[in-house]
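Hey, I was hoping to borrow your eyes for a little while. I've been puzzling over a protein and I'd love to understand its fold better. The fold is given in discrete form, as structure tokens running alongside the sequence. I'd be grateful if you could look everything over and explain what you see. No rush at all, and the record is pasted right below.
>
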Amino acid sequence: MTELLHRPETASGRVRLAAERVTLVYDDHVAVRNLDLQLPEGSFTAIVGPNGCGKSTLLRALGRLMRPAGGQVLLDGRAIARTPTREVAKVLGLLPQAPVAPEGLTVAELVARGRHPHQSWLQQWSRDDEAAVAEALAWTDLADLADRPVDELSGGQRQRAWISMALAQGTDLLLLDEPTTYLDLSHQVDVLDLVGRLHAERGRTVVVVLHDLNLAARYAERLVALKDGELAAVGAPVEVLTERLLADVFDLEARILPDPVTGTPMVVPVRRLR
């Protein structure tokens, strides 16, 4: 374990989302064990760790898609499990790993689905809904593709369409599970640039699961490193990405150099340790 575990996590501003002694179990397997975590308002946090360490499982629990076997998740200080689904959907958007749209659904129709939490039987569609969809399409550079079926888009365009739906949803807390999976490097950068702009320009609180440590360090302000379902370290990338942590958590001998573009930590692998 890294020494960062023993230092209390400090949050700037109020805590939007928190896990309190959360244990997550599926198929009789304990995926996450007694985990405490706070996600401050306005932060950009990347969850990292080796395959099978519980990253996506934790994100699902934070997004109310999985009920903890122990402990609880708090959204703005309230137990998320006891908060009505519609209320959660108005403040929290979750983009799952490799989402699939129904066949033939257009980009505009997908983005419009983000407005469902704001509608009711008495008011199915409004000018506010129309404006929110148009703004989301424009902001993600998808207005020209609004009538194109989602399944005809490139991988990067599809991810932008799903992010556009979350933007139209109007939530200020956004959870993304490996949004760069199956994308080439240029489209990975395109998607993360968009998420970074949502954070920097729109003030969104962002939590993202990423495999690429260098991209995580470049875009996120805070890293959460997991190992075997437990918290290994939390902090700024320069604090978390150490040679010792890479050996302990990833079984990797590596060197840490400054990224020549951003100055953030850059991991240069040497060899697998085991």
In short: The radius of gyration is 19 Å. The chain is about 30% helix and 30% strand. Confidence is low (pLDDT under 50) at residues 1-12.
